[in-house]
Structure formats: C-alpha cells, structure tokens
Design goal:
Layout lengths: L7 H11 L3 H32 L4 H8 L3 H8 L18 H13 L8 H10 L4 H9 L5 H9 L15 H16 L7 H10 L4 H8 L4 H12 L10
C-alpha cells in the first residue's frame, strides 16, 4: 500500500489559512477537491503511459486498474474527434494558448485534420509567447523549425470536413500540456506548457520536427523553468 504524501490535516489547514468565513472555506474545499481529482487522473495517466512504453498491453493495464481493456482504452486513449474532451479543456488555457489552438485550426484549413504540426505552427505564430521564444533560443538556427514544419505539411489540398477533427497526437499533446502545468505547480496552461506537451507526445509530427532542429523536452523544460523562476531575463520579441 502506497503511503499518501498528502494528509487531510494539511489540506484542512491550507483551506482554513486562506479563508475566515465558513462558507468561503467550504467553496474553497470543493475547488481544492476538484483539483485533487484532476491530479489523481493525471497521476494514473502518467503511469498508464509509462506502462504502455514498457510494452504492457491494454488488457494488462485494465486488469491493474480494475477495469476492462475497452474501458481502459476509452479512458486513456485520445480519439480523433472535433471535441478536445474534458482533459485538455481550454478553460484554464491563457489567451495566448487559446490563440495557438485557433491558429492551428487556421493552418489546417486545407487539411482533413488538425495535427500536432499545425499546433506547432500556431506556437511559432504566437511570437510573444514563451514557447516561441524557447524554440528560437534552442533551435539550430533561426527559422529552421518553421521551415522543417512546413516541409512536413501535406501539400495536397483536401476538402475540410465539418466539424474538422483533431488528430489523436494533437489531442494527446494538449492533454500532456495540462499535465506539464500540473507537474510544474501552475494553475494556468501557457504556450510553454503546450510546447512541453508537444515534445512529450513523442510520436507526433511536431515532436519529430522539434527534435530534428535541436529542441528537446529536457532542454526546453530547463530553459522555461529558468525564465519562469527569474533566473533568466524574459526574452524580448524580435
């Protein structure tokens, strides 16, 4: 049995310190409970992904968490669809991050699907975001990531379905962006978290492009943490 690192007393004290009114404390407790549910969901998802990388089957995973193979897949495998789903909800995405998703849709206007490569172009277009600045800092030379991404796009024009679906890689990258924000203790999802999510979704086109231009998850995370913590000045635009 794993020992719970968070004790009920600690949570009670945390809520009580922040609010004096009993009803405000109750509302805060409900909000905190929802956050803990989200953390728990992503905790399980992290180790599901780890199990898959080590070769575990969906049958094995289902047995480990007490559900059927089909139920495990339904819960943890993103499906190609126009809806982003509950995990990568855009509610806590910053305005810049929401623009990135809209820019991705724009770049996919001649495609059948919205892929991680379109999401990467959206990150690059949002030049004032920390993601674009991180890419500019780490890429082999200026503009190589954009060029490499454009070279990976399907040049044949397709009739766009309505509604247009997000690919499984794109949806997974956005889900992982939420996980990256939670892991870093942030209550918002910024462009930097989307970048880390894209890199963590290693099978997507965007992650492959970024690796080819020298942008790795480890280097990006280290740089982002230094900027956020104030150890490095915020890069200027241009």
């Amino acid at each position: 049995m794993v020992t719970t690192p968070i004790q009920l007393t600690d949570l009670i004290v945390t809520v009580a310190k922040e609010h004096e009114d009993a009803l405000h404390r109750l509302a805060a407790a409900v909000s905190l409970s929802e956050q803990l549910d989200e953390l728990g969901d992503h905790l399980i998802g992290h180790f599901v992904d780890e199990a898959r990388r080590t070769g575990a089957s969906w049958t094995d995973i289902g047995e480990s968490i007490g559900v059927s193979k089909q139920a495990a897949q339904k819960r943890f495998v993103p499906r190609e669809s126009p809806e982003l789903g509950s995990k990568p909800s855009l509610d806590r995405f910053t305005q810049r991050s929401q623009r990135v998703v809209n820019l991705a849709k724009h770049h996919a206007r001649f495609s059948e699907r919205i892929g991680s490569e379109h999401l990467l172009l959206g990150l690059l277009d949002e030049s004032g975001g920390l993601a674009a600045k991180t890419i500019r800092k780490l890429e082999a030379s200026d503009g190589t990531t954009r060029i490499a991404t454009l070279n990976r796009l399907d040049t044949e024009s397709h009739r766009r379905p309505d509604p247009q679906p997000f690919t499984t890689h794109c949806k997974k990258a956005l889900e992982l962006a939420v996980r990256e924000a939670l892991r870093m203790g942030h209550t918002f999802i910024g462009t930097e978290h989307i970048l880390l999510g894209v890199l963590a979704e290693e099978e997507g086109t965007a992650a492959q492009v970024l690796r080819s231009t020298g942008v790795t998850h480890q280097a990006a995370e280290a740089y982002i943490k230094q900027v956020v913590s104030g150890l490095l000045p915020t890069p200027r635009e241009g």
